[in-house]
Structures are given as structure tokens and as C-alpha cells.
Amino acid sequence: DIVMTQSPDSLAVSLGERATINCKSSQSVLYSSNNKNYLAWYQQKPGQPPKLLIYWASTRESGVPDRFSGSGSGTDFTLTISSLQAEDVAVYYCQHYYSTQYSFGQGTKLEIK
Amino acid sequence: EVQLVESGGGLVQPGGSLRLSCAASGFTFSSFEMIWVRQAPGKGLEWISYISSSGSSINYANSVKGRFTISRDNAKSSLYLQMNSLRAEDTAVYYCARDHIAPGIGWFAPWGQGTLVTVSS
Predict the structure, then answer these.
(1) Of A49, A55, A93, the CB nearest to B112
(2) Which of A19, A25, A93, A109 could form a disulfide with A10 if both were Cys (CB 3.0 to 4.6 A apart)?
(3) Is A106's CB within 8 Å of B47's CB?
(4) What is the pLDDT of residues A28-55, one digit of tens each?
(5) Contact, A79 vs A21, CB < 8 A?
């Protein structure tokens, strides 16, 4: 089974500053047949279900602000918020879909400094 | 409007059973793959089960394999999770979620609001 590990566990960033969250998979989630990374990112605010932000490691879901971006390939991935807004306070999760034995990272809690 | 509504949660004693339901509306349920994900109080997301659109392919996390059974009734646009031999560590909010596209790839949206299962004597 693929294990997803995020870092850091928590992060405090000033409003307007950049926030960076990392996700590492225990094996590559890059499919050589289509050169796509089978990696998604979600945002979860308190009392709400998760919301899809990014898939294919870097494709923003419709309606997601362009301050959110994803990058990386193989086993190492990054979610970047270019200019932190108050409404971005949440827990962020990565998820692989390389197989239907899915798994999530443990989450990164993002707060305002 | 695409909607998923979970039900069936509640308080159950250790060793007991519970059946969760997820009612889908606003889309062609039979075309989409579905999953169950749980979240223990104050903890992260844990994927626990997957079912293909036809129901012919199923997967479970090791933590629930042999105790939980996922199923679906496409005629009723409903997803189910039969939970047996429940343990205290199964206490969590249980979410159902739909694959975002059909045929599915594996990223999930939307999600239901969740139903709380509490296992305690």
C-alpha cells in the first residue's frame, strides 16, 4: 500500500505571504503510460467535508482561486498558496489515486501568524 | 444539484453492528464510482472502502477488511456500508464521496456532510 506523508503537520503564515505544504508518497504515483501524477489535494475547514482543490498534481478544480497551485512529480509534491487569505485557514490533505487502494496524507493545519 | 446525504450513524456498543446509507441525487448514480472515508474526532481523513460503478470491484482498507462491507443499489441511487464487530477505534464521522468524473479516475467531489458513529459502552 502507498503511504502518504505530509510536512509540516502545522504551519503559521502571515496574511499575504506564501504558504507551502509538502506531500511525499512511499512509491511513485507517476503513471509512465500517460505521464500523469495520480495525486490530488483537498481543503477541509472546521465542521465541513473536504473540498477538492487540485488533481493530476497541478490541475486546479473549477472555481478554485489561482493563488492555489500544485507541483511535483513521482514521489514529491507541493501545494502552494501564493498569498494567504483569511479564508484559507484550514487543514490540507494530499491523496493518491494510483490504485483504488487510496490513501490520504495525515493533514497539514494552516493558520494565520 | 448534486447531493450526497449520509444517514444511519449513532451510538453502538463494542462488538455491535450498524448500517450506513448514502442517498445520492442530482446525477446518474450508476455511472460513478464511490468511496467511504472516515475521520476520527480531531484526526485526519482515512479512506476505508471503494466500490466501482457496477459494484463488481471493491476494495477495503486493512483496518476494516473482514468487518465492513460496502454495497450499492443503483436502482435506488444509494450506497451502503455494513459495519460489524465495531470497536472503539471505529468512532468517527463517516463520509461518502463520489468520483468527480465518470468513468472514474480517483479524485473525489462532492462529499456528503457525514454521519457520526460512536462506539462505546
Answers:
(1) A49
(2) A109
(3) no
(4) 999 999 999 999 999 999 999 999 999 9
(5) yes
